[in-house]
Amino acid sequence: MLRVYYLEGKRYKSCEPNIKNMTDFKGMDILNTKPLSKSEIERIMEVADGVLAVARKEEESDLLKGKILASLFYEPSTRTRLSFETAMHRLGGDVITVVGTESSSLAKGETLSDTAKVVEKFADAIVVRHGKPGAVDEMARAADVPVINAGDGDHEHPTQALLDLFTMIKERGIVDGLKIGVVGDLKYGRTVHSLVQLLAHYDVELILVSPDQLKMPGEVVSELSEKGVKYTETEDLEDAVKVADVVYMTRIQQERFNDQNEFEKFKNVYVLTREMIEKHNAKMTIMHPLPRVGEISLNVDELEGAAYFRQVENGVAVRMAILALLLGKV
Ligand code: NCD
Which of 80, 94, 18, 82 shows the shortest CA–CA distance to 50? Predict the structure, then answer.
């Protein structure tokens, strides 16, 4: 049986699964983070904590035996696809995969909703990455099985944000009270759009660091204001490094620029160096959804606060939790 943990103060306590409260997620889609309530978010966190030992290869599980996940990745991915597939395999489930549009019926002109209606006949859940914002919603409307957004263009990447939040809990013990620097391409970066919506449920202070042209979209910022989240916007990375408990670096999203000369202007705009960290804030936690393309110097990796590879492992646990919840298995 799956062990479930809940957060009491700063400590996780183990308990028997409470079946009554556990079916709420069954059949749900995860398309963006805004609709998730704080209790739903915390439920995902506690189930992820319960399966962390399986993600870390310390325990085995066949919780999802007999279930099939269809993984449809129409845009490049290494981590997210392998993370979902690993999560499914380690819980005893199976995976069917399409990578790239060339090998799929989309290349023949099939609509997204027809693809969804076909794939639901094969699989119990579908995870999709697509270059067009809203494409995954379109598939979710057509499919009767749970659909998970693994990144839709520059829009959202909810499971990355959930694993980022889980990592903050693991690294810092508690989210309330944290000062969090969110750095890089806040305009096109989908992970940050999803992440700040989750953080808005907590008493955090955000330092949004980006070039003026790559600021967090107005509607996301207004949302933060409406929810009373404390935030500042700056172009200077050191403003965040000086005060933040956590700095979340992101890459400039080259593939979203129509004009590659524009991209060239920004590509090396922020580099978090070991010197900068040691000078200002040696204890801070450093995160990145990866891939990094120069935003964090390689010698930062040896610092205790460098959490980006632990983030990857946490991601498997969070995706296990999401799959188990949506398939009604916890
Ligand atoms: C992110 C993505 O795809 O949005 N990568 C990931 O899923 N870990 C971040 C990025 O590509 O910059």
Answer: 18
The Å distance, Cα 1 to ligand 1 centre, comes to 33
For a mutational test of ligand 1's pocket, the pick from 75, 86, 191, 214, i.e. the residue with the most ligand atoms closer than 8 A to its C-beta, is: 191
Residue whose CA is at the smallest distance from ligand 1 atom 1: 289
pLDDT tens profile 24-44: 899 999 999 999 999 999 999
- Measuring from each residue's beta carbon to the nearest atom of ligand 1, which residues come in under 6 Å? 79-80, 151, 157, 160, 190-191, 250-251, 289-290
- Rounded to the nearest angstrom, the distance between the alpha carbon of 13 and the centre of ligand 1 is 32
Confidence of residue 22 (pLDDT cuts 50, 70, 90): very low
Cβ distance 40 to 156 under 8 Å?
no
**Distance from the alpha carbon of residue 285 to the mean position of ligand 1, in angstroms:** 19
The per-residue pLDDT for range 113-138, each reduced to its tens digit, is: 999 999 999 999 999 999 999 999 99
Per cent of the chain over pLDDT 90 is 88
Closest ligand 1 atom to residue 290 Cα is: 8
Query: Tokens in use for 41?
Result: 């978010």
According to DSSP, the residues that pair with 96 across neighbouring strands are 70
Summarize pLDDT for 63-84 with one digit per residue, the tens.
999 999 999 999 989 899 999 9
Task: Tell which one of 33, 74, 80, 312 to mutate to probe ligand 1, the residue whose CB is within 8 A of the most ligand atoms.
Answer: 80
Atom of ligand 1 nearest to the CA of 185: 12
Going from the C-alpha of 91 to that of each of 87, 88, 131, 185, the distances in angstroms are 6, 5, 29, 35
Alpha helices in the chain (DSSP H): 38-55, 79-90, 112-119, 135-142, 158-172, 190-199, 218-226, 237-243, 260-266, 274-280, 308-326
For residue 7, the cross-strand partners are: 12
CB 127 within 8 A of CB 84: yes
- Cβ–Cβ under 8 Å, residues 79 and 163: no
pTM: 0.93
